[in-house]
Protein: EF-hand domain-containing protein
Organism: Bemisia tabaci
Amino acid sequence: MSKMKGIDTKTTDKLDIDVCISNDFEKKIIEAFEVFDHGGNKTVDVREVGTIIRSLGCCPSEAEVQEVILSVEDTEIAGSVHLSTFLPVVSNLLAEYKFQPASPEELLKAFETLDKEKRGYLETEYLRKLMMEEGEPFIQEEVDEMMAATVDSESGMVQYEYYLNQIMVDER
């Protein structure tokens, strides 16, 4: 078991708390956390929590991210999260396989549900509208980024089976 020593600051003694690392799993969480620890004081802005969790391969909804934030936000320094609080919470989430991405079969079923005529593709504007207006809406930039990767250049449609195969190849 190794320890990481915090940087002592005048803000609070909490920043000087040792964080015990007991396995490679926790090292991975700490490495992701440190990318956003710009002050080198084992704290990150709460707005980075979702990004950190997603960088670990999790796919939480925004509501789930907010739940995590509520459980890890520093009570003394509003808007910040200390590694000593973040590490055990996120370790438990990952150990319990929370926020796992959808399987290829689940994604295919979702696309097929949207493809009411069973054509094997979705019209770009239809998918764009759904992504921005239904469920947990995406922002324009996110939709544009996805469309750039999914729209078939010849047909102008989203050939979802081809797209899913591309995603699966990229993940291997």
Remarks:
- The beta strands are 2-4, 19-21, 43-45, 80-82, 122-123, 157-158.
- Confidence is low (pLDDT under 50) at residues 1-17.
- The longest helix spans residues 83-95.
- The helical segments are 24-35, 49-55, 62-72, 83-95, 104-114, 124-133, 140-150, 160-171.
